[in-house]
Design goal:
Blueprint (H helix, E strand, L loop, with lengths): L1 E10 L3 H12 L4 E5 L7 H24 L14 H16 L5 H5 L3 E4 L2 E5 L2 E4 L2 E10 L3 E3 L27 E5 L3 H12 L3 E6 L10 H13 L3 E4 L1 E9 L2 E8 L5 E6 L1 E4 L3 E3 L6 H4 L21 E3 L10 H20 L14 E3 L4 E6 L2 H6 L4 E7 L4 H6 L5 E7 L5 E8 L2 H13 L4 H5 L10 H14 L1
Parallel strand pairs: 1-2, 1-6, 2-3, 6-16, 8-9, 8-14, 9-10
Antiparallel strand pairs: 4-5, 5-6, 7-15, 11-12, 12-13, 17-18, 18-21, 19-20, 20-21
Helix pairs in contact: 1-8, 2-3, 2-5
The structure holds flavin-adenine dinucleotide.
């Protein structure tokens, strides 16, 4: 086996791996990046793009159906499945390009097309080459979590990143998992005319969101025709006449039922991609979410850092990028002995999902804020009273502002509503700047702005402060 010595070996070449490798190369380090799939169409990024492409198509399907209400004549003629696939491919090709690694190679990074495996903490086997590094960064991402449901393997199930896996749209579909990915696909397929049943084991969809948001999203899904089963889980599947019969049980009691569908989409979360990565050989431990790291993103093995989905704190592309930059900084600080390492700060992480209306949040939920102790106030506002929302015909949704009950400092903002993904950025800035609900409530917003709902929620919190 040929051996090479580098400063840093990065395993995994998607968002996290590319960002870390790029940052280190910019600082003058000799970096080698190992990626098993040079197409650039890996799980995370493909799923993310797919979700956005399909959700946009679903949105258009609804707008066309509703156009007559606005005085515009249009007829919904159904969905052209091959065009959906073509559009997905066009977007993916445009975003990822033909040679996704060309930019890295041009920056002097050696890219090895192989599966990487740790042999020891500073040694990575990649094909017939042994790569030695003064530091190693793990950025191998995540893969779909597949629950242990008897019969599932035989049911030819779909996962989010391969959701356009059939030759056409199924007539009926069961979606297992009521997280952000599951609810978005459930809505989209329902809008395409597929009969969708969503099954979520927990007591509500979007369990990580505020209860008000979950409630609004459940209503939205039902309005779109999705049958929502919360508190139920799929217990077994069997095949009959080309269809899948999913047996369901209601948690905690003996109620049982079943749904018969053409397709099953599994959206029950993510597992860290660590299979056959040689973690034991390097002394790297796994935690409950993924590779165990400290607050500087160091793993339990000396000289090895990890970032992105493989760490599993968040499954968000902007957080994969953030962690990758931080890991690169800390590797550089360690190798040069200069500068203190940085610590991860997860306090004000914004996220948004392309449901229609969109869902977004930043900061603490009310429950988390109360758990920290001290008084807490909340302010709620809906979109129904906003002229902008009314004229657009997009009045569904709610904004919730959580603030400390003493000075009114904003702790969290939660939105389900039109353009929530854009509105949340004002809230992120407010949190970062340590602003209060008074600041937000006293800031004039143009009559045209949907963000006026944010101001109104802040004003409601000011009232609650008394
Ligand atoms: C359906 C879906 C929708 C999403 N929607 C959003 C969204 O709306 N907003 C958002 O912020 N995020 C979203 N995400 C999450 C986001 O895409 C991920 O957080 C992000 O892509 C993680 O990047 P990563 O580089 O850590 O991992 P990944 O993208 O999983 O990449 C890991 C890379 O490592 C490679 N690899 C793995 N093992 C090895 C090995 N042993 N040797 C060599 N290479 C290896 C893989 O081939 C891959 O290229 C979504 C994800 C999915 C699946």
């Amino acid at each position: 086996m040929r051996a090479e010595q580098h400063d840093v070996v990065v395993i995994g070449g998607a968002i996290a791996g590319q960002t870390a490798a790029w940052e280190l190369a910019q600082r003058g380090f000799d970096v080698v990046l190992v990626e098993q799939d040079m197409s650039g169409r890996q799980h995370g990024r493909l799923g993310d793009l797919m979700l956005q492409v399909l959700s946009r198509a679903g949105e258009l399907a609804v707008r066309v159906r509703q156009a007559e209400r606005y005085g515009v004549l249009a007829e919904f003629g159904g969905v052209n499945y091959s065009q959906l696939v073509r559009r997905r491919d066009e977007v993916v090709d445009y975003v990822i390009g033909g040679r996704p690694m060309a930019r890295l190679e041009a920056a002097g990074i050696r890219v090895v097309a192989a599966r990487g495996r740790l042999r020891a903490s500073g040694e990575v086997e990649a094909g017939d080459t042994l790569l030695r590094g003064r530091a190693v960064i793990l950025a191998t991402g995540s893969r779909p979590h597949i629950p242990e449901v008897p019969g599932l393997e035989q049911a030819d199930f779909l996962v989010p990143e391969r959701v356009l896996g059939y030759y056409g749209l199924p007539r009926t579909m069961a979606v297992l998992g009521g997280g952000a990915v599951g609810v978005t696909f459930a809505q989209v397929f329902s809008r395409f005319g597929v009969g969708v049943t969503l099954v979520e084991r927990g007591s509500r969809v979007l369990e990580d969101a505020e209860p008000e948001v979950s409630q609004a999203v459940t209503q939205v899904l039902q309005d779109d025709g999705v049958r929502v089963f919360t508190g139920w889980e799929g217990v077994s599947i069997h095949l009959a006449g080309g269809q899948r019969i999913l047996d369901l049980r209601q948690g905690g009691n003996a109620a049982a039922g079943s749904v018969t569908v053409d397709a099953i989409l599994v959206a029950t979360g993510r597992d860290p991609a660590v299979q056959d990565l040689g973690l034991e050989a390097a002394g790297i431990q796994l935690g409950p979410r993924g590779v165990l790291v400290d607050d500087e993103l160091r793993t339990t093995a000396s000289g090895v850092w990890a970032c992105g989905d493989v760490v599993g704190v968040y499954h968000l592309s902007h957080m994969a990028e953030y962690e990758a930059r931080l890991a690169a900084h800390n590797v550089a600080a360690t190798l040069t002995g200069q500068g203190p390492p940085q610590k991860v700060r997860y306090a004000q992480v914004p996220w948004a999902y392309p449901l229609d209306p969109e869902v977004a949040q930043v900061g603490l939920r009310e429950e988390d804020a109360r758990r920290r102790g001290g008084p807490v106030v909340v302010g709620l506002a809906d979109f129904a009273g906003l002229h902008r929302a009314i004229t657009r015909g997009e009045v569904r949704g709610v904004v919730k502002v959580v603030a400390d009950g003493e000075h009114g400092r904003i702790l969290g903002v939660h939105i389900v509503g039109p353009r929530a993904g854009e509105l949340i950025s004002e809230a992120s800035l407010a949190l970062r700047a340590g602003l209060t609900v008074h600041d937000l409530a006293e800031t004039a917003h143009p009559a045209l702005a949907l963000a006026e709902a944010l101001r109104r929620a802040a004003a409601a919190a000011v009232q609650a402060l008394g």
